[in-house]
Design a protein that fits this description.
By secondary structure, the chain is of the alpha/beta class. It is built from 8 helices and 12 strands. Helix 3 crosses helix 4 and helix 4 runs parallel beside helix 5. The two termini are 37 Å apart.
Length: 264
């Protein structure tokens, strides 16, 4: 990952009605391509996000959406670059902290481990059989509170609903607090109340923490309401723009049918 040159330093920009990016950070994906087992999965993907933006990636099954996110966190070999620029305390920063929420988390539903104990296993070096320190317990509760899930701290993982588990996974992704948050189909098999709560949390984080969010979603109508931009991916970025522009694009309509645009 490298910092863009001075010519690419962002300026203050309105990324949503009433919200202006700080102008001190941006993320650029440039020429990203992925070949696996002799097949081209992604080719020359280019994206540019300012802080505070929420970009939703849409596309048909097999378009490369999950591969794109996995490439951004370094799990898939690729060519091209992820460049990040930020200014903190008057100093330039060229390396982003990235948080990632995968599609699902394989857990043993019969395991007695609690949310706090799993959090401790992720962030602490102390073996669980020695117990969880008060510091880690407090840290877990603070991060769970960010996603409206502090009440789940002592719950067993196997007893969580789909929506509750995704909020817990989001809390883990916020440790440490990221500059860029990647969400891969975070709401599959989650009921409507869980979807609403999750989107409310993400929108709040985006606005209050000034983080850039890239989300993969098949729930186009719901995602359009909280996204500042959308992009249609089919091996490369076919079209990109506001949710209204992308949902009206002929290739999006031919792929998904007519979708009601978000209200202005």
């Amino acid at each position: 990952m490298k910092a863009p040159t001075n010519s690419s330093v962002p300026h203050r920009v309105e990324v949503a009605p009433g919200y202006v990016a700080c102008g001190e950070c941006c993320t650029r994906v440039e020429g990203l391509s992925v070949r696996l087992q002799g097949r081209t999965i992604l080719e020359n993907v280019n994206l540019h996000l300012h802080c505070g933006e929420l970009l939703t990636i849409i596309g048909p099954n097999g378009a490369g959406k999950t591969t794109l996110l996995r490439a951004l966190i370094g799990e898939v070999p690729h060519t091209g670059t992820l460049a990040f620029y930020a200014v903190r305390a008057g100093h330039s920063v060229g390396k982003a902290v990235i948080g990632y929420v995968p599609q699902s988390l394989d857990i043993d539903r019969g395991s007695p481990i609690t949310v706090t104990e799993l959090f401790a296993a992720v962030v602490a070096r102390r073996p669980l059989f020695l117990g969880v320190s008060q510091h880690v317990c407090a840290l877990a509760r603070r991060h769970l509170a960010l996603v409206e899930a502090e009440h789940l701290a002592d719950c067993r993982l196997g007893l969580l609903s789909g929506g509750e588990l995704h909020r817990v996974m989001l809390a883990f992704a916020l440790t440490p607090m990221p500059d860029i948050l990647l969400l891969d189909e975070p709401l599959a098999s989650v009921d409507h109340a869980g979807v609403v709560a999750f989107y409310r949390t993400v929108a709040s984080l985006r606005a209050q923490r000034h983080m850039a969010v890239i989300m993969v979603s098949h729930n186009l109508s719901e995602a359009a309401h909280i996204s500042t931009r959308m992009a249609f991916l089919y091996r490369t970025i076919v079209c990109e723009g506001t949710p209204r522009e992308v949902l009206a694009h002929p290739i999006v309509r031919s792929t998904f049918g007519v979708i009601a645009p978000p209200a202005d």
